[in-house]
Amino acid sequence: MTLVPTQSRPADADSVHRTAVEVMDAAGPQVCDDMSVEVALAVMAAARTVRLVVCDQDGQCTGLVTRTELAAVRDSSDYTDRVRVRDILGDHGSFASPVTTMAEAEQAMRNRRLGVLPVVDEQGSALGVIALSR
Questions:
Q1: What's the CATH fold of domain 13-131?
Q2: Is the pTM of this model over 0.85?
Q3: What HEC string does 82-118 produce?
């Protein structure tokens, strides 16, 4: 899989009423939560991306990890090769549904200080991601 670069979107008054499924980008590479930090970093490097969607054994999205988060764990004095991606996942409850409006998604992202929010379907499968504009 290849990550689709985030594209700038028109900043019209209607954009806050659009739904997540209308504005999301491709989810990009997905990895299993039992993957080691080193392997996840290698996947990121190969895919030339700065984030990975993390899924459990059933294919349900459990969150996102960034290169910065993984590198910080790898470079810490507590790091061992037994650390798995699931061990470092942050806010597990931060997801948007396809019908979430951009206004709702942006508010949730700002409140939780997230730069990216996964969009998941009713079964918990990742459909895409919403990234805050900088």
A1: CBS-domain (3.10.580)
A2: no
A3: CCEHHHHCCCCCCCECCCCEHHHHHHHHHHHCCCEEE
